[in-house]
Amino acid sequence: MFSARPQFYFHWRAAHRPVGTLREEDTPPEALVQNIWHHQRIRRDDLKLLDERTLRVLHPGFWNHGAGPDFRDAVIQFEREQPITSDVEIDLQSSGWKSHAHDRNPNFERVKLHVVWEGDTHTSIPTLALKPFLDAPVVELALWLASDAAQRYPEGLLGQCAGPLRDLALTQFEQLLNEAALVRFERKASDLHARARQAGWEQSLWEGMLRALGYKQNVWPMQRVGELRSRFTTRAPSLVQTQARLLGVSGLLPNDLTRKQRSADTYLRTVWDYWWRERDAFGDCVMPKNLWRLNGLRPANHPQRRLALAAHWSGDAKLFKRIDQWFATAPADHALAASLLAALQPPADNFWSRHWTLRSSAMPKPQPLLGATRVTDLAVNVVLPWLWLRAREGNNTRLLAEAERRYFAWPAAEDNSVLRLARDRLLGGRRDVKLKSAAMQQGLLQIVRDFCDHSNALCADCKFPELVRNWKISAA
Length: 476
Description:
By secondary structure, the protein is of the alpha/beta class. The chain has two domains: 10-151; 171-409, no CATH class. The chain has helices spanning 8-16, 30-38, 96-99, 138-145, 148-151, 162-166, 170-199, 201-213, 219-227, 229-232, 239-250, 259-264, 266-278, 303-314, 319-328, 336-344, 372-393, 397-409, 417-427, 438-450, 464-475; strands at 55-59, 62-63, 71-78, 84-93, 111-118, 127-129. Strands 1, 2, 3, 4, 5 and 6 form a six-stranded mixed beta sheet that branches. A hairpin with a 5-residue loop joins strand 3 and strand 4 (84-93). It is globular and about 70 Å long.
């Protein structure tokens, strides 16, 4: 007869999972300490800093899986002071604040609380040691945090709108996302229109495309490069000359080459020699290197590689014509991304098809300068809004409708941290909601922009929950 009491499997799991080797006296891995903070598995009413001041955690913040502090926008209160919004950094030891150079890193300026496993009282920032305040033995916590239950987003951290959104029928929810997506689409078109009035249609599209190549970390530096288009295309230089100008103006070329670089790297030497002869002529527009955010970037998103792609585009006299031709054709919905990729993909590049950056080793297989993921970003954020805007300005209702149709038919883009957090906090674990189109993703991002970005982690004064309740009643 089968017994429901866990025996072999229970002991096997405990022995073979990584947490099974943790002992009570051991220092836990940092990932476990981060999980303890995220789920607030601590005696929250008893917390004291290392300087003996009391601490109240009104919200632990949002786990940041990218570069910078571990948690963003926590709401905390020291003693009887007013609550403040703060980023939170997690380390095993209090000495980590200085040894990891957080005290000198501008990305950590908003950190007002350092959370550690254990530490001493000699700290330069308010510090909480978690070890004395756990709500269970650390081995027990490690097992719980490895369970399926702990993988769900903590119920207490859900947004105030999670309940009202959970009450919507699936068709209502999808309608809400699509309406928000259309607002976002028209807003992006409006931004492009503002620039087109100043600089013309092609320059507006060009700058928008370069902004999209900047991804989220480097939008503004890429925007500035886009604004300088007329400067680096003067006298129709060759492709390598254009790449030299873009890399030089961006500040991403080394100031000088070492003897080893000169002898071993033909492309870098060629680019640098071109730039060395011209840099005085561009001295008034060279950007500081520290304007770029390079930490945590995927190799394919490195700005050096993106600028190499921009050089191909800038020397392509038929680029804008191909975009118009793509819009004039009628590809099947499943081929939308592939057909636009074909229109935007440059030919193979002797250097950049096999290198992520100027200093990276050659790849065993060539890689295209533009991938399907970036094409989707370009389409929904720039190309389709730009085409829609031109159709509207030309009073062409057929093309206006086609731009919207392609927008709502476009397959979903790659997931990102903002979408993941929004799904966790706003959707509250709804399994029936699938962001199956790029437009639905854009709609969720627009809700975050319109409401979450104007409130705090506690959803203070957010009007969205009440709007959803009223909308459900009116739509019924």
